[in-house]
Amino acid sequence: MAGELYLVAREEAREVLGIPTPLTRVPGARGWVLGLANIRGQLYPIIDLRQFLGGGASPVTRLTRILVVNHRDVPAGLVVDEVLGFRRFSEGAFNLEVPTTIVQCKQYLAGSFRHEGEMLPVLSLRKLLEDPAFTAASA
């Protein structure tokens, strides 16, 4: 997102998809709600994560993906710039220290993993979806 790498816990992500079409616009929704999509028979709001976090609209490219969140109460598909794949980290590489990020999302970070000398922030999708600012999607 915005040129930075973020990690997400595997149990918080249901699946990764391309941008679904069509997206049905939602009148009166905030600008970061791109619309609704039918994904496997269930309606999901499609949210531009970068725009929600105040980093401007995400450009849609051939690498853009939807990260379908695994949350029992709040269904959502998050637009992300790219998904690089799945990776395992040792528990010893995790720490609660939160690195400074370009996009202001500190309140949604759960810590970081140290990998090849770099601190990779862990974005908590649970914290994000349960934030009243996220659930107040109407303008």
How would you describe this structure to a colleague?
It is a single chain. Strand 2 and strand 3 form a beta hairpin. The protein contains 3 helices and 8 strands. The radius of gyration is 15 Å and the shape is globular. It has a single domain, classed as CheA-289, Domain 4 (OB fold (Dihydrolipoamide Acetyltransferase, E2P)), CATH 2.40.50.180. The chain has 139 residues and is mainly beta.
The CATH H-level homologous superfamily: CheA-289, Domain 4
In percent terms, what proportion of residues is strand?
25-35%
Number of strands: 8
What strand line-up does the widest sheet have? 1-4-5-3-2
The name of the CATH architecture is: Beta Barrel
Helix count from the secondary structure assignment: 3
* Structural class estimated from helices and strands: mainly beta
Task: Tell me the CATH topology.
Answer: OB fold (Dihydrolipoamide Acetyltransferase, E2P)
Query: How far do the termini sit from each other?
Result: 24 Å
Name of the top-level CATH class: Mainly Beta
Number of domains: 1
Question: Largest sheet, if any?
Answer: 5 strands, mixed
Helix content: 10-25%
The H-and-E topology, N to C, reads as EEEHEEEEEHH
Radius of gyration: 15 Å
